Amino acid sequence: MKETIKEEEDLIIKFLYDTFLGRILLLFITRVTFSKIITNFLDSRYSIILIKPFIKKYNIDTSLYENKKYKSFNEYFIRNKKEEYINIDKNINDLISPCDCKLSAYNVKDNIFKVKHVSYNLELLLKDKSLAEEYKNDYVIVCRLSPDNYHRYCYIDNGYHINNKKIRGKLDTVRPEIVGKEKVYVTNSRSYTVLNTDNFGKVIQVEVGALMVGKIKNNYKEHEFTKGEEKGYFKYGGSTIILLVKKDKVKIDNYLINNTKNGYETIINIGDKIGVKKDN
Question: What span, in angstroms and rounded, lies between the C-alpha atoms of 183 and 125?
């Protein structure tokens, strides 16, 4: 059984979202332009002073990552794991997680899935009514990355895609206490790709930006991909990947559904099995 968590509220996040002064500050710091200013600094050589405090704060095991001299904080943030610490489940019948994350799995009913007390609409998520209709009674898998996670993500199967669609929006935090109050998945900046997979049919992968995360970098526009191949990465901050999968193609592992119903996220590594192909 994978480790499960109920994350405690962050005092800074509580201040920003639950106080009058905090809400005023949010008007500025959730804007993409503010994120770009922060990103420019984190891309500069002056930001390397932030690396050691970041490692200490999040208790990052540096032995898992390549040993090199980093030229900026963001270069460290998107650091590569050593190959021996990335274990991709190669069974063609197994659906894998695209990233290191805290994972939740939801049933969709009539285009709606609920996170705590907030209802999310697939049409608003994708800005595409006909595409949303295809998944109106299927599964939504939410993979939440926190700052300490490995922020590169991979393809979940073999297949091909044509392009990535970008949707402009704000950059709110994706912490659980806010996702359960604000409709961040449908208001934040995001990008999605329709993946035509060999074993799980058409899967939609949505990368959602978050507080201080204005940069979602997908490696390819049109591409024939392989399972476990790197798809892209996020620059600084927490962020989220959402998968839309068909119930007639995939059976999500029961423990993930049950943990979600009980209010827990499940800690998952990139390449871990999270479901299995259904025989048609």
Answer: 10
pTM of the model: 0.86
Active-site hit among 100, 157, 172, 272: 100
Decide if pLDDT at 239 tops 90. no
Instruction: Report residue 209's pLDDT band, with 50, 70 and 90 as the boundaries.
Output: confident
119 is catalytic: no
SS3 88: coil
Residue 111 near residue 186, CB atoms below 8 Å: no
171 vs 30, 91, 213, 258, CA distance in Å? 5, 36, 7, 30
Is residue 100 part of the annotated active site? The answer reads yes
Section 191-195 average pLDDT: 96
Which of 97, 104, 189, 239 is flagged as catalytic? 239
Q: Please report where in the chains the tokens 């993409």 appear, as a residue.
A: 32
The stretches of the chain forming alpha helices (DSSP H) are 11-18, 20-29, 32-42, 51-57, 73-77, 122-126, 129-133, 176-179, 184-187, 254-261
Judged against a pLDDT cut of 70, whether residue 169 lies above it is answered with yes
